[in-house]
Amino acid sequence: MPASWTQLHHEAVEIVTGAERDGVTLRVVGSTGIRLHCTAAADAMQACGRVAKDIDLIVPAKQRKGMRRFLEARGYIIDRDLLIAMEGRRYSFTNPATDIDLDVFVEQLEFNHTVDVRKRPGRHNLTVALEDLLLAKLQIVNLTPTDLVDLTVLLTSHPVTTSDAGEEAIDAAYVAKCLAADWGFHHTAVRNLVRLRTALDEGDGPDVDADGPDKPAETVRERVGILEKAIETAPKSMAWRVRGRLGERVQWWEDVDEREATY
Amino acid sequence: MAERRVDPPVSTAAPGVFSRQASGLIRVGSSFDVFIFNIGLVSVGIAIAFNQLYGPSLYPGAQPAVSTLLAALGMLAVATTFYFWSVVFPRSGGVYVFLSRTIHPGVAFVMSLVETVILMYYAALAASLIVVVGLSSFFSTVGLVASNDTLTRWGTSVAQPDGIFWIGTLLLLVAGALLASGTRRYFSLQRILFVIAMAGTVVILLAMAIGSRSTFQDNLTSLTGLDYNQVIDSAKSGGYVASDFSFSESVKFIVWPLLPLLGAVQSIGIGGEVKKIQRSQLFGMLGAVIFSGLLIALFAVLADRVFGYDFQGAIAYNSILGTGDTTTTTPYFTVLAGILTSNVVLAVIIMATFVAWIWFWIPAELAYTTRSMIAWSFDRVAPDRLGWVSERFHTPVVAIGTSTVGSIVFMWLIAYKAIAFLTLIEVLLVVWGAVMASAIIFPRTRRQFFDASPARRVTVAGIPLMSISGALSVAFFAYMIYLLWNDPIAAGPLINSDHVTKEFWIMLGVIVGGAVWYVGTLFYRRRQGIDLDLAFRQIPIE
Fold first, then answer.
1. Which residue of B has its CA nearest to A68?
2. CA dihedral defined by B75, B78, B79, B85, rounded to 10 degrees?
3. Is B196 helix (H, G, I), strand (E, B) or coil?
4. How many interface pairs between A and B have CB atoms less than 8 angstroms apart?
5. Are A217 and A142 in contact (CB under 8 A)?
6. What b-and-e string marks burial along A42-66, b requiring 16 or more CB atoms within 10 Å of the CB?
7. pLDDT exceeds 80 at position A86
8. B396 neighbourhood in chain A, CB within 8 Å
9. Which residues 127-186 on chain A approach chain B with CB closer than 8 angstroms?
10. Distance in angstroms (rounded) separating the CA atoms of residues A155 and B442
C-alpha cells in the first residue's frame, strides 16, 4: 500500500531536518516539494487526483556520502542498479518498513532539460527555491495533467515578481535568465506556459483553489503573463541565438527513458 | 515544401490516467556513442594492419577487400541477431543476460566467464598492438622520414618484451582509470578521439588517393635504401609465390578481417546504458559493421593501387620469414604509408591515427567485461563485492580493477611468453554461436518475452527475422570455426591427435572452474534462501 500524503509530508520534513542535524543539506523537489511549499493546496491536489508517490530530494555533491549514511541509518535501502548506472549523479532508496521511495538528485535535475539548483541554495528550509520548483515543471516536454495541477498550484499560491522579493515569491527575472541561456529549455518552457494558459482559457484547467486569491484562474493567467514577458525580454546568449536558428528541425530536448533496470 | 521538424513525444496516457514514468532516467550513451563504442572495438587500424600484412603475403591471391566485405556480410546477420537480443533484453551484461534468461543461468555464467577471459586477453592484445603496430612503427617511420637514428632505434627497442609489457600495462591501467572516472567521461573522451581518428583517416585516404606508385618507389629507395623490384625478387627467391586474384584464398582469409569485425556488435554489453535502445543498437551495430567494412575494404583497394599487391605480399613475407629485403621494423600498412608521404607531419598523423584506432579497443573491452561481472554480481552468481561502487569515484572499481588486472596477466603472457591466442576466437565463436542458436528457438520457447518485445514485429513470411538471422549466424560461425581450425597461420586446431594447445587447457580450466564455482554458489546461496534460477524466469533475485 503506497504511503499517504500525510506520511510523505511527515517523512520529508523528518528527513530534511534530521539530515541538517547531521550536517547534510537536503531539499525537497518535485511534486512533494510543491505540496510542502503550498500546504493549503495539498488537500485540493489530492482531491483532483494528484496522488503523492515518492519524495524527490536534492543533495550537494560533496555531501553524498553523508546523505547515504543518514538515509541508510533511517532504514532506507539503496538501489544498487541505479547506484552503478548513474555513477553518483542520482540515487534511489526504498524503505521496506514504510514503503516510501526516495529519489535523490545531486545538485541538478536532469530530465528533458537540466535544472541546476546550485544557484539558489538555502532559499527555503525544506524545499529548493520556488523558481527551481517552477523550472522543474516547465522543463517537461510531455506535460501531463498532474504537471498542470502542480504548475497551477505554484502560480496560484505564490506571486510572480519582476525581481527578487524573497523566498515566497517567484522571481520572473531569475527564471528568464535561466531560460535565456538555453534555447531548448526556453522553447519547452514557453510552450508549457502557453499550454497552461490555453487549458485555463478553455476551462480545462485544474480546479485548484489554493490559499491564493478568489479568482485563481485569473490570477494564474496574470502571473503567466508576467513570466512570459520577462522570458521574452531577457537578453539571450549567443549560444541561444545560434541554436534558435535551427528551431524545431533539430530535437531540442533530452529523451527520458523509462526507469528500467540497467543490469 | 513543408519545413522539417521534430515533434515531441505525445502522452499515450489514457484519459483520466495521470501517468508519466515518474523520475525516468537520462541514460548515458547516445546512438553516436554506441556507434563509436562498436567502431572502436572493430579497431579499423588493427584491421588494416593485419589485412595488408598477412593477406598478400601468406594467402597469395587473397584480396583483403573482398574478404573484408564477405566477413562484413556474415557479421550483418550476427549484428541483426544481437540487435534483436538487445531490444528483447535491454540490459547491460552481454551474452550472460541473454543466455541466463533463455537457456540456464549456470550455462550462461560459464559461457560468459569464458567470453570475459577471452576479451581480457584481447584488451591486452590491443595494448601490445599499440606498442608493436603503433609506437614501434611510429618511431621507425618518423625516424626514417626525419633521418633521426635515435627514433629509429626506439622503433626497434619498444617492440622488445620489456617495452611491450610495460607500455602495454601502462595503457591498460590508463584505460582502467578512465573507466573508473565514469562512463560519461569515457564516452566524452571516445567522442573526441573518434573525431581525431576520423580526421586522420581522411588525411591518410587523401594521401593514398593522391600518391602514386612511382612516388612510393622513389621514397622507398631514398628513405630505406630498398629497391622496389628487388624486394619482390628476393621474396620470390625465398619461396614467395605471386598470384592473381583467387576467390577461394579470399574466402580463407575472411578469418583475419573477422577478428576486428567481431567488435562491431559488442554494444550488447552496455545495452542498459544507452538511450532509445532500438535506434541506438540498430545504428550502432549494423552501422558499425557496414561503415567499418567499407572503410577497411577501401584502404585495401588504395593500398594495392599505391604499393602494389605483390610488393605488399613480398615485403611482409620477407619480414615474417626473416628472409629477403624488408624494412627494419615490420612493414605494417602504417610504415608503408609513412614512406609514401615522406613527410614528418603526415607520418606523425598517420601513426597517431592508427594508435588512436587501436586504443579504442582497450577501454571498450574492459567496459564489456566489467558489465558482465556486475551482471553476475546482481544475479548473485558472483560475490556482491564485485559490484561494489566506490564512494569516491562512484563507479564499480572492483569489477574494473579485476578486468584490468586480468588483462595485465595476459599482457605478461603476450610480452614474455610470446603467446598468440588467435585460437581463442574459435571458443568465442562457440559462445556467441550458442547465443545465435538460442535466437532461433527463442521466439517459440520464451514466447512471453518475445511477444512483449519490438522484435515480434519483424517477420519474413511469418517467420521471426530473429530466428532467420540467428540461423544464418550459426551457419556463418560454424564455417568460420572450420576455417580457423584448418588454418595454422591464423589459429589452427585447439586440439588434435598430436597436440593439445595452451589455449585448450586455459579454456578447459575456465569452463571447469566456472562450473564448479556456479554449483558451489548455487548451494551456498540456497543456504541463504536465495534461488539463483530465478534469473531464468527474469525475476529480480533480491
1. B391
2. -170
3. helix
4. 112
5. no
6. bebbeebebebbbbbbbbbeebbeb
7. yes
8. 84
9. 140-142, 144-147
10. 53
- Pairing mode of beta strands A90-95, A77-78: antiparallel
Q: How many residues does chain A have?
A: 263
- List pLDDT tens digits, range B29-39: 889 999 999 99
Residue B161: count of CB within 10 angstroms of its CB: 13
Does any CB of chain B come closer than 8 Å to the CB of residue A111?
yes
- B534 contact residues in A (CB cutoff 8 A): none
Q: pLDDT tens, B320-355? A: 998 889 998 889 998 999 999 999 899 889 888 988
A92 CB-near residues (< 8 Å, 6+ apart): A78, A79, A82, A101, A102, A103, A104, B23
CA–CA distance, B28 with A86 (Å, rounded to integer): 8
Kindly give the interhelix angle for B333-341 and B344-378, rounded to the nearest 10 degrees.
150
Cβ of A257 within 8 Å of Cβ of B184? The answer is no
Contacts of B8 in chain A (CB under 8 A): 141-142, 253
Q: Does residue B194 carry a pLDDT above 90?
A: yes
Percent of chain B at pLDDT > 90 equals: 70
Instruction: Please state, in angstroms and as integers, the Cα–Cα distance from residue B271 to each residue in A218, B37, B185, B256, B262, following that order.
Output: 49, 12, 18, 27, 17
Q: Measured between alpha carbons, how far is residue B295 from residues B47, B56, B64, B476 in Å? A: 10, 18, 12, 22
Q: Cβ neighbours of residue B447 under 8 Å, at least 6 residues apart?
A: none
Structure-model confidence comparison of residues B17 and A56, the more confident one: A56
Phi/psi for B329 (5° steps) reads -110, 165
Q: Considering Cα of B453, then B458, then B461, then B465, what sign does the dihedral take?
A: negative
Type of residue at A95? N
Kindly indicate the confidence band of residue A213, based on its pLDDT and cuts at 50, 70 and 90: low
Averaged pLDDT for residues B99-120: 94
Read off the pLDDT of each residue in B511-537 and give the average, rounded to a whole number.
87
Give whole-number Cα distances, B500 to A54, A262, B366, B395, B505, in Å.
61, 41, 29, 41, 8
Give the integer Cα–Cα distance in Å for B161 and B229: 33
Closest approach of A229 to chain B, Cα-based (Å): 25
What phi, psi does A102 have (nearest 5°)?
Answer: -125, 140
Query: For residue B21, what pLDDT is reported?
Result: 46
Collapsing DSSP to helix, strand or coil, A109 comes out as strand
**Contact residues for B114 (Cβ-Cβ < 8 A; gap 6+):** B427, B428, B431, B507, B510, B511, B514
Question: What pLDDT is attached to residue B59?
Answer: 96
Q: Exposed/middle/buried for B294, CB within 10 Å: 0-12, 13-18, 19+?
A: middle
List the beta bridge partners of residue B495: B500
Strand A100-106 with A55-59, pairing:
parallel
Strand blocks (E) in B169-286: none
pTM of the model: 0.88
- Locate cell 614474455: which residue? B416
- Between the two ends of chain B, the Cα-to-Cα distance in Å is 56
* Nearest residue in B to A92, CA atom: B23
Residue with cell 538471422: B469
CB atoms within 10 A of CB B202: 11
What is the pLDDT at residue A191? Answer: 97
Q: How far apart, in whole angstroms, are the C-alpha atoms of residue B359 and residue B197? A: 10
User: Residue A168: what pLDDT?
Assistant: 86
Nearest CB neighbour to B272, from listed A49, A85, A141: A85
B19 pLDDT exceeds 60?
Answer: no
CA A89 to chain centre: 17
CA distance B350 to A220: 63
Range from A30-44, B70-84, B200-214, B409-423 that averages highest in pLDDT: B70-84
Length of chain B: 542
Q: What is the grid cell recorded at A34?
A: 510543491
